[in-house]
């Protein structure tokens, strides 16, 4: 007899989870207390979302050292996350994609990999699903990583690369649950302007072959120093305008008071 169990991170434990889904801590506790003696035949364990690398290692160790190790087949989906530099993140736990690879001409695929300590899941409590903000950030990271890894020659390397998003059109079609999920990305260059290159990326998030969300993102990549210069100039303009507006408001208030 073969059975399947899906293990998710404790942050994704909710009252209405399906029966064959269990949280990380409960799964480990069951193994340690020999409460898995109901296993008959082979049990296939799949690692879902919300489990960090240390927990993955601990889970693997617990399975190997349990009395039921010969009956358990662990599918850990051990895909390497993309580099922090490719998604412009400082913290490893905030990277959301792993196993990035080309699957066709200008088409790429990656696995969604949500760490339990990711900044976007620390305070989400509504239902047993992955929030739209996580999906949007995963899409952004996917487009950025594809560009950084496979289209790096299009932008000047001098000060790194800066990304500026011009438009983002998204459609959510179904709930995305904290289980195995895939992102796909089709990318095309839409224009070149000196050190600036414009792209369009069409992205989908799939689970069990069904599209949960899709998006079209248009963005421009440029030399990092150029981007910093543009940002600094516009920031100064905003500060001047706000300061001028504040002075006018204070003058009007004083006149009214008098």
TrEMBL record:
SUPFAM superfamilies, sorted: Thioesterase/thiol ester dehydrase-isomerase
Ranges where the A-factor biosynthesis hotdog domain occurs: 87-220
InterPro entries linked to this entry: AfsA_hotdog_dom (IPR005509), HotDog_dom_sf (IPR029069)
TM stretches of this protein: none
One Pfam family linked to the record: AfsA
CDD domains hit by this protein: hot_dog
UniProt protein name: A-factor biosynthesis hotdog domain-containing protein
Originating species: Pendulispora brunnea
């Amino acid at each position: 007899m073969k059975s399947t169990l899906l293990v998710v991170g404790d942050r994704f434990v909710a009252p209405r989870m399906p029966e064959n889904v269990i949280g990380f801590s409960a799964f480990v506790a069951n193994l340690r207390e020999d409460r898995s003696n109901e296993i008959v035949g082979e049990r296939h364990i799949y690692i879902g979302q919300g489990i960090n690398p240390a927990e993955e290692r601990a889970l693997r160790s617990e399975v190997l050292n349990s009395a039921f190790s010969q009956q358990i087949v662990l599918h850990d989906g051990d895909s390497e996350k993309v580099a922090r530099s490719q998604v412009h993140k400082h913290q490893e736990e905030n990277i959301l994609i792993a196993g990035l690879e080309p699957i066709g001409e200008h088409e790429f695929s990656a696995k969604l990999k949500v760490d339990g300590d990711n900044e976007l899941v620390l305070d989400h409590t509504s239902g047993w699903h992955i929030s739209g903000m996580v999906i949007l950030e995963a899409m952004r990271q996917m487009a950025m990583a594809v560009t950084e890894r496979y289209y790096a020659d299009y932008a000047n390397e001098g000060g790194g690369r800066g990304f500026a998003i011009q438009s983002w059109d998204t459609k959510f079609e179904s709930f995305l649950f904290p289980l195995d999920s895939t992102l796909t990305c089709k990318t095309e260059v839409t224009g070149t302007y000196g050190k600036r290159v414009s792209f369009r990326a069409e992205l989908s998030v799939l689970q069990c072959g069904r599209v949960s969300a899709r998006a079209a993102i248009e963005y421009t990549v440029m030399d990092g120093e150029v981007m910093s210069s543009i940002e600094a100039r516009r920031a100064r303009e905003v500060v001047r305008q706000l300061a001028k507006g504040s002075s006018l408001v204070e003058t009007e208030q004083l006149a009214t008071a008098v």
